Sequence to fold (350 residues):
Amino acid sequence: MKNLSISSLESLHDLKDLKLLRSELSKIKSGIENTGKGSARIILNGFAEEINSEYILNELTQIINTFTLERSKYYLKRLIKSLTEAKTGSINDLNLNRWKEYDDIITDSLWILKKRDRSGEHKAAYWGNFIPQIPNQLLKRYTKKNEWVLDPFLGSGTTLIECKKLGRNGIGIELLENIAANAQKVINQQKPLDCNTVTEIINADSTKMDFKKELKSIGIKSVQFLIMHPPYWDIIKFSNNKNDLSNAETVDEFLKLFGKVVENTYPFLEKGRYFALVIGDKYSKGEWIPLGFYTMQEVLKRGYKLKSVIVKNFEETKGKMNQKELWRYRALAGGFYIFKHEYIFLFQKK
Ligand SMILES: C[S@@+](CC[C@H](N)C(=O)[O-])C[C@H]1O[C@@H](n2cnc3c(N)ncnc32)[C@H](O)[C@@H]1O
Fold:
């Protein structure tokens, strides 16, 4: 790994000759290139910090290819600033002075995620889980380290595993006792980024739970991010429990129960913070039931503004894998399209 001293970059600022500046920068650039792909280490005031070498190389190339000394120095100053000063907002830890380094963070509204992330303790066995990349992306954009995340439909615990990996505290509510217990086991196995990270699992009904009391017993009054991945009505029956949203008799009853969870959690999300809803639609008796847009409306009725609608690709579930041909035939015969997407709605508390 190559060390890059900021003071040596700063000293280039005094050069009065473009050729000389270019040749000095080219030396630095080839030094980084020769160490291969990966990270470089910047040395600032005696401290070392790792940085994506691709980012530095691109910036150096831009400066070297500039035609005037004035412009080169402007870019050099900008590079030094990006390496030495942090510009972070109030809802995450991203340093906007180094935004070009964040190749891993999606900013488009179409998410094509090919493979499930296999790092971490996720078991992927729970029918109806979401892939870890969903909470991972959202936590990085909408929370800071040590903040609190609430997931009222915890399932197998994907959100809390990602919380532990990223140093966020998390609370998960799950109606089914055995599912909550299994989630607890895998979450315990996940090595935390920070040993002070707290994760709490509560086996309860999110339509009825006293959130104020539970949060108080954990020692907090509010959370900074809310994520919900409710049942997609009755597509997967999670249990025979009548309070399970997947057992709602009608779509209206499903929306009423979902609305209750939105209402119950609303007072505990800090003002100005974000809420992500992950849900897909369903098809029934020759009709597309837009659960996504219906649930989105339920949220908008309750004091949130819509920030984004993300469409995410949806690979075959285990159940449908062997029925691919059958579904294609049905689609052709029935005049409809096969589901290949689900939604992530992003709201902000007004
Ligand atoms: C789509 S799954 C969530 C999966 C989760 N994101 C994961 O990755 O494992 C929905 C979960 O909500 C739970 N659930 C249904 N009704 C509930 C309620 N009233 N209160 C709390 N949890 C409920 C179900 O048991 C199920 O585990």
In short: The pocket of S-adenosylmethionine is lined by residues 126, 128-130, 152-153, 155-156, 158, 173-176, 179, 205-207, 229-231, 238, 243-245 (CB under 6 Å).
